[in-house]
Amino acid sequence: MLTLPKQVKSIYLSLSLSLSLSLSLSPSLSSPHHAEYYMHEAKRMKHRADAMVDKLGKAVNYVDAALSFMECGKAMEEGPLEAKSPYTMYTETVELIRYAMRLKNHSGPGARQEDKQLAVLCFRCLALLYWQMFRLKKDQAMKYSKALLDYFKSSPKVPTTPPIWSDSGKGTGGPPSSLSPSASALPLGSSPSSLINIPLRIHQMAANHLNITNNVLYSYEYWELAESLVRDNNEFFNYLNTLSGPLTLHSSIAHAVQYTRQGLQWIRISAKVG
Question: Boundaries of each AF4/FMR2 C-terminal homology domain copy (predicted)?
C-alpha cells in the first residue's frame, strides 16, 4: 500500500484538487474542439516558453505546448481532412519534445528530481507518439510486407557457386592473384551470374516499410527509458497513477495529455517555475 509523508501528501492533494477544479471548468475538456483550437493553444504555450529564461520552465512549457499539438493531431484524425496530416503533426511534436529535453540534463550529477520527473513524462509521451504513428500507417506496412514477400518468393534465387580462389588463396581467405580488375571488384565468392538486380520500387517499398515498423522499436525503447527512471521517483509516479490512472502504451491521447499535464503542474509548483 502506498504511504506518503503527511506534508508531501497534503501538497499533492491540494495540487490535484486545484488542478481537477481548473480542468473541470476548462472548455477544452467539456467538449471536443477542432484542430485549429488546439493549434492555437499549442502556439500560445510555445511562445510563452520561447520568452522564458529559466531552462526548466522553458522545458515544461514546451512539453505543455506539445500536449496541445498531440490533441491537435488527434482532432485531425477524427475530423475532416486537414492540410497537414496527423502523422506529420505527431512527427513534429516528437521533435519539439526532444528539443525540450535537450534543455535540461536528467542523468548528470547535478540533475534535480524535477528534471528526472520531466524526463519520464517526456519519454512516455514520445513512446505513445511513436506507437500512434505506427497505428496510423499500420495498414500501409501490411501492404508493403505482403508485396515484398510476394516479390522475393517469385524472384530468381541466387545460384550457389564455389569461391573463385586460386590455389595460393586456399585456406587463407585471400583473393586470387589472377583475377582481372573487373572480377576483383565482385564480392568474394561471387560471379557476375550470381548478382540480382532489385527494382527501384522494391528498394523504396522496403525503405518505407522499415520507416513505419521502426516506430514500434522507438516506442518500446522510449517506454523502457521511462521505466528505468521511474524507480528513482516511485513516490511521485505512484501517486500520479493513483490520481490519474496508470499510463500504458495503449492509453489514449486524451489520457496521456491529462496524465502529463497533472505531472507538469506538480513540477511547476515543486520547482517554483511558471
Answer: 32-272
Q: Is residue 70 part of a domain?
A: yes
Separation CA 62–CA 56 (nearest Å): 10
Query: Quick one: how far is CA 186 from the chain centroid?
Result: 40
Q: Residue 184 CB: number of other CB atoms within 10 A? A: 13
Q: Which domain holds residue 256?
A: 6-132+225-271
20-44 pLDDT, tens digit per residue, is: 544 443 444 445 678 999 999 999 9
pLDDT score, position 177: 45
User: Rounded CA gap, 178 and 164, in Å?
Assistant: 10
C-alpha grid cell, residue 89: 503533426
Residue 242, number of CB atoms within 10 A of its CB = 13
Distance (Å, whole) CA 148 – CA 171 = 38
Kindly report the pTM of this predicted structure.
0.77
Q: Which whole number is the average pLDDT over 5-10? A: 50
